[in-house]
Design a protein that fits this description.
2,3-Dihydroxybiphenyl 1,2-Dioxygenase, domain 1, 3 helices, 4-stranded mixed sheet, globular, 2 domains, 23% helix, 152 residues, alpha/beta
Length: 152
């Protein structure tokens, strides 16, 4: 049974390139169909559509030039369970992937690194923390809603 109501589907022109890249991040192939593939890492799933040139004829995305970076405007975040695991993963893959930003401590007090997959998707890999239920974020919410003129 899935543990989420939201799935990410990445439209790619090569399932093999996706397999080779995402296996480095700990994903395993769950299944492959003619134009669809699902990979899993723990409780997380990544779905891939296309797998070949047909991806460029998908109803929505065919409006854009074929050389448009597939992941423009999107960030995929992958958590690992500890800083030690994160550091080991970075050392393992840093020479095999396109590193956008190396492993570092961010201003919010957690570690991550940023990479780009073979299709142009921007991937952040970081140490796991509860960013939804942080008291410091919740304390900022009422003021930020007012400042931004948002209506909830």
């Amino acid at each position: 049974m899935q543990t989420t109501d939201v799935f990410i589907e990445l439209h790619v022109d090569s399932f093999q390139k996706a397999i080779d890249f995402y296996k480095l991040l700990g994903f395993e192939v769950l299944y492959v169909l003619d134009t669809y593939m699902v990979m899993q890492r723990g409780k997380s799933f990544l779905n891939f559509y296309g797998g070949d040139e047909r991806v460029f004829n998908q109803a929505y995305f065919k409006r854009f030039p074929k050389d448009t970076k597939r992941g423009y405007g999107m960030e995929v975040i992958i958590w690992v369970d500890s800083i030690e695991e994160l550091k080991a993963l970075f050392e393992k893959i840093k020479d095999k992937v396109k590193v956008v930003e190396p492993l570092k401590l961010q201003r919010w007090g957690h570690w991550d690194f940023r990479i780009e997959d073979p299709f142009g998707f921007y991937i952040r890999v970081g140490d796991r923390y509860d960013w939804i239920n942080r008291d410091d974020f919740k304390a900022e919410t009422p003021g930020n809603i007012e400042k931004k003129g948002l209506k909830i």
